[in-house]
Amino acid sequence: MFWKKKQFQVDLQDDIPLNTPIDDLTYIVLDTETTGLALQSGDRLIELAGVKIQSLNVQEEQTFHTYINPNRKIPEQIKQLTGITDHNVTGAPNSADAIKAFFQYVEDSHAVSLVGHYVSFDNLVFKKELQLEGYRFSPPTTLDTLELLSFLYPAKQIKDLEEYAIDFGTRIYDRHTALGDCMTTAYLFCELVYRLKEKGLGTWGDLLKAGEINKRI
């Protein structure tokens, strides 16, 4: 990871043969919480989490988590939804430092890809927060569980993360917390990858084709 001419660059281990088995790869699942969805109007990042998946096993002991000081009050409805209070973020790192620490964790894990549920929003959060510090951000290789669901089940109705976890019988953790949703997404992702493999799609190239999102930010 480096910053050259204010370009925020992330180095993933994604330059690998497309026939590499999915099971041999490492992924980092992420989730963010913000003061709201109106990022263009001043909503800010308040929590960031990640968990490592290795050999299609969620490494629950290898997580990343931090609160972030948004330099503004957290709306009451967000406090009620997430349980995050102004006290939690007082003294927490600023967004740029938190994001840098997160991507250092990603690189240290030798991950090939980020994974998220509606991860384009998380990437937009990174982009907006880093812009405030004068950085340009280009998302690294990213996989979205929604894209995988669409590939596997094109007619399936779009649902909430918890509803998907119930449908597929995967674990559910604390909702609307970055670490909880991150863990829920991680187990859902592993289940979806197993279902890809049942269809004979077991390589890095297959996974990219099934789930790599378009850069929509």
TrEMBL record:
Residues 26-198 form the Exonuclease domain. GO terms for molecular function: 3'-5' exonuclease activity; nucleic acid binding. SUPFAM superfamilies: Ribonuclease H-like (SSF53098). Keywords: Exonuclease, Hydrolase, Nuclease. The keyword Signal does not apply. One of its GO terms (biological process) is DNA replication proofreading. Pfam families: RNase_T. GO terms for cellular component: cytosol. PANTHER family: DNA POLYMERASE III SUBUNIT EPSILON. This is 3'-5' exonuclease.
